Amino acid sequence: MAMVNRMLLVAPALAAAGLLAGCATPPAPNPTAEVPYCHKTNKGRVIACTQAPAPSLNADAEAKRFTPDPSALTVYVVRRNWGDGRQFVKVQADGGPPVETLPDTMVRMKLKPGRHSIAFEFDGRGQGTTVDGKAGDVRFVRIDGMVWSWKSTFEWASEPEAATRERAPKARLVADVAMR
């Protein structure tokens, strides 16, 4: 009899827990929504979000096909490094409007064919690099960030372009810039 009484007490509690578990499940992200991108820790805690909305998840997936644009030079600026921190690094092409990046993000720039200056700024200091290409070319450059408790450094990575291209699919598209 005591076992039956215990079951009568436990069964409603289990049923209530099961019903409430659905409330704790976050809704699936909308693949067409353009919302700010938030960088999270390994445990899922948000540590920084972009001010501007990032392209949708659908646009992110399309960008990661790395399809050439027959009328533009496409440049991917990738920020993906194990030692990167939560700092914002602003990226721009040819002195155009700056775009915020966070760790594990990338920016796609569609530019006129030719030679272009790609620059980034962090903590009031900037660095630039030059990218050259013709219509239909796809180029990759990477910002290498290293953050320590006493100092943060960012510089253009000196790895081969193919290595940066391998990192790009794991980065989130945070801006799609067209300067034609």
Outline the structure in words:
Strand 7 and strand 8 form a beta hairpin. The protein has one domain (36-179): Immunoglobulin-like (Sandwich). With 180 residues, the protein is of the alpha+beta class. It starts with a helix and ends with a strand. It has a 5-stranded mixed beta sheet with strand order 10-9-3-6-11, covered by helices on one side. The chain has a 4-stranded antiparallel beta sheet with strand order 5-4-7-8, with no helix packed on it. Helix content is 21%, strand content 42%.
Distance between the termini: 80 Å
Domain count: 1
Q: Please tell me the overall pLDDT.
A: 87
The poorly predicted ranges are none
Strand order of the largest sheet: 10-9-3-6-11
Question: If you consult CATH, what is the topology?
Answer: Immunoglobulin-like
Keywords:
single chain, about 180 residues, alpha+beta, Immunoglobulin-like, five-stranded mixed beta sheet, four-stranded antiparallel beta sheet, 3 helices, globular
Summarize, please.
The protein contains 3 helices and 11 strands; from the N terminus they run H-E-E-H-E-E-E-E-E-E-E-E-H-E. With about 180 residues, it is an alpha+beta fold. Strands 10-9-3-6-11 form a 5-stranded mixed beta sheet, with helices on one face. Strands 5-4-7-8 form a 4-stranded antiparallel beta sheet, with no helix packed on it.
Helices and strands in order:
Elements: H1 2-24, E1 36-40, E2 46-53, H2 57-63, E3 73-79, E4 89-93, E5 99-101, E6 105-111, E7 114-122, E8 125-133, E9 138-147, E10 152-156, H3 161-167, E11 172-179
